[in-house]
Amino acid sequence: MKGYVFHGPGRSAWEDVPDPDVKEPTDAVVRVDAVTICGTDLHILKGDVPEVGPGTVLGHEAVGEVVEVGGDVRTVRPGDRVLVSCITACGRCRYCREGAYGQCLGGGGWILGHLIDGTQAEYVRVPYADLSVHPLPGTFPDQDAVLLADILPTAYEVGVLNGGVRPGDTVVVVGAGPVGLAAVATARLFSPERVIAVDVAAARLEAARGMGADAVADAREDPAQLVADLTGGLGADVVVEAVGLPETFEMCTRMVRAGGHVANVGVHGRPATLHLEDLWIKNLTLTTGLVDTYSTPTLLRMASAGRLPLADLVTHTFPLDRMEEAYDVFSRAAETGALKVVLGGPRREVVAVGADAEKAADGTGIVP
């Protein structure tokens, strides 16, 4: 089969790899029908995630059909259409028993495309299938469902729920890429007074308005002042960091009110300064986290009921065998207008969906 293989920083290729098979009785093998590229995959290609060894098939999000299961798998069987979660859970260790699947001690956590071969291939082996794949209704579109493998639960759990968003809050989301936009959409579920999106790209800010942001701010034009003006000088109740840069993290700490909450979602490749000389007196709560995906069943039900604006997050689709082209488009999002790219299905030309095709063509679309 073919898979997208990491060969070291700056080097990767769509190439022949061995077919996966069942190694443990809790495994399932899934034929990949749809897959997407995550900003974390770009971090890996830059060398920011040294645990990923050369020769690893990348990817941790997919929709597909189960083709083989081990003898201990009880919840799915061959022929079932499933969502492959970005997090694998043994279900037995202390963390899994607490629902903290991302911290699994039994061989799970974030392992697909990280510690073992991932989903950006024609087939993928999924350990601990009973807790790590989710059956899908046949009417759920692939390109919508695949967004529930990572970005929606990440934004919802690590941003909105960890941030403690409540009715009447002012919520600021710094970074209007895919996860930031998902944070805007899921924050709206809790009836905040306002949601403010901060970014440097006008197209992304416009997309944030489409996802429910009440106000937007250019990160280069003192967004902290806008937040202060809108809150009577208090600052935001919750600030979600969805970029992963030292500058944006420090910006978040300047916009949060005393007694407020900074929820860090971004993947940081460089150290960020925590200015405790200023913050120690403010009674702040700072949370970090890897998604656990305990919310995936809830999000699936909400998405099936049309409560989540999933289609607007996908800007480009590709056939699976154009993985290298998809990576190129995704990595040059400022030029291409890419937000989420979805690969799969029969061979077809690249199209823009859920966004104005002209924006994708002229480079004014959204950047992750």
UniProtKB/TrEMBL annotation:
Cofactor: Zn(2+)
Organism domain of life: Bacteria
Entries under CDD domains matching the protein: FDH_like_ADH2
Gene3D superfamilies: Medium-chain alcohol dehydrogenases, catalytic domain, NAD(P)-binding Rossmann-like Domain
Gene Ontology molecular function: oxidoreductase activity; zinc ion binding
Pfam families assigned: ADH_N (PF08240), ADH_zinc_N (PF00107)
Chain ranges of the Enoyl reductase (ER) domain: 10-343
Keyword entries, A-Z: Metal-binding, Oxidoreductase, Zinc
InterPro entries in alphabetical order: ADH-like_C (IPR013149), ADH-like_N (IPR013154), ADH_Zn_CS (IPR002328), ER (IPR020843), GroES-like_sf (IPR011032), NAD(P)-bd_dom_sf (IPR036291)
PANTHER family given in the database record: NADP-DEPENDENT ISOPROPANOL DEHYDROGENASE (PTHR42813:SF4), ZINC-TYPE ALCOHOL DEHYDROGENASE-LIKE (PTHR42813)
Family of this protein: Belongs to the zinc-containing alcohol dehydrogenase family.
Name the record gives this protein: Zinc-dependent alcohol dehydrogenase family protein
